Structure formats: structure tokens, C-alpha cells
Amino acid sequence: xxxxxxxxxxxxxxxxxxxxxxxxxxxxxxxxxxxxxxxxxxxxxxxxxxxxxxxxxxxxxxxxxxxxxxxxxxxxxxxxxxxxxxxxxxxxxxxxxxxxxxxxxxxxxxxxxxxxxxxxxxxxxxxxxxxxxxxxxxxxxxxxxxxxxxxxxxxxxxxxxxxxxxxxxxxxxxxxxxxxxxxxxxxxxxxxxxxxxxxxxxxxxxxxxxxxxxxxxxxxxxxxxxxxxxxxxxxxxxxxxxxxxxxxxxxxxxxxxxxxxxxxxxxxxxxxxxxxxxxxxxxxxxxxxxxxxxxxxxxxx
Length: 301
Description:
301 residues, 10 helices, elongated, mainly alpha, single chain, 0% strand
């Protein structure tokens, strides 16, 4: 039989046939008669992988999971964002200096609001009287509103400079529109009451940031400009929110100074009152003249 198997192997391709050893056949028969013993401690959800890549039954190595890794990654992103390493140093420092008036007016508003509340509760302010704190607050209001309108106009004018420098090409009216829309939205806010003016300026700053980010994507502004604008807009927006929170704490404790809109209304009302007074005086003269003529006719009779 072995001769016939060798002949068959010689006619087929592949490695040559090797006749199994009698000892090996006997050992295999012995193993076949043995019963398999269960070892559940060696079974795991990844036991099939262990058979190939690891030693059988070895426990998985416990990996040290850093629970704060995600927090550290987020903090690193925030740090890199606010570092503004790609921003020119001159623009960086001047931009930060431009935030000081916003920070000063916002913090002053919060302190004065606290002092006014303190005076309302105890009858006397901490450093200032309630009347003095309210007067200073009314001085700060137009300063913050006016400064916001100036900054919005300045941010729009930057696009005119980029157009004149031909940064990213010449785009004409499309890029000039940025510089026109910004002041057109900013300055009318000065006619609004303080709260509405600050909310409108907050919305304008946010809208202009997205417009600037879109300009960077289009190649109309330097690549670092969107990150630079994000940081400055974030701080300005936070300052406006702080101011609104401070004013909200004393909304029922202070009087509201007349704004430009109120003054226009007063002017219109005074003009109407003057016209009415003039009309009453004219009618009085006519009545007096009629009465004088009637008296003359009676005297003639």
C-alpha cells in the first residue's frame, strides 16, 4: 500500500508524501481516546485572539486610563487658541489694549450696581452714596455704547484697507460692503435705550465675526485673522454680558437718563406744544379783535 501511495504522490504537484511514523500514529490514537477536560478559567471574550497573538490563558494587561486626558486636551486647545502665536505682535498688543475700555466699563458697572444695592439695603453705599453711584453709572453708559459703535466701525474699515492693499485680489463692492454695513448698524444703536443698545451691539459683533471668518476662508484676510477676531469678540461679548447682568440687578432702583431717542421725542413734543400755544394765542387775538369791533359798532349806534 505504501508503494501505491508513493506512486500517487509522484504524479501530483506539491511537496513529496511522507509516510507517518508508527509511533506517531499510536500516540494520536491514545490522545483520541482521552476526554477533553473543561478549563473555564482560560476562556474569555477574546480567547480566540489569545490563541494567535498571545499565550493561552494569559490575562489582559490593564491599561491605565487617564480620566482627565480629554480635559487636558481641551485646555491645550484653549491655550493654543488664546496664545495667538501667529498674530503679529503689534496687532496683538494693540488689540488687547483696545479691550481695556470695555473691561473697565463692565467692571465699573458691576461695582456701581453692587454699591447701589448696598445703599438700598443699608441706607448707605460702601464707598459711594447711592446717588453718586447712580450718577457715575449714567456717565459710564454712553461711554461704553459710544466705544462699541467706534470699534464696530473700525472693524468694518479693516476690509477697506485689505481691498486697497489688494490682499487676496481685488473684489470691489463686495468687500467694500463690509466697511459700509458695520457703521450703518453700529451708530443707530446709540438712539436705543442702554440695554437694547448693548444687545444690538453684541449681535453686531457676533455677526461681524462670522463675516470675518468667512472672509478668511475666501482668502480675503490673513489666515490668523479669524482666530484673532474670535478671541477679541469673545472678550467683548463677555464684557457686554457682564454689564447687562450688573444692570439687571438694579433695574428697579435707578432712573433712566433720556437718550437721543428720548430727546428727539421731547423735541417733537415741545414743537407740537409750541404750535398749540401759538394757535391758542392767535385765536385769542382774533376773539379780542372781534370783541373790540363789536364794542365799536355798539358805540356808533
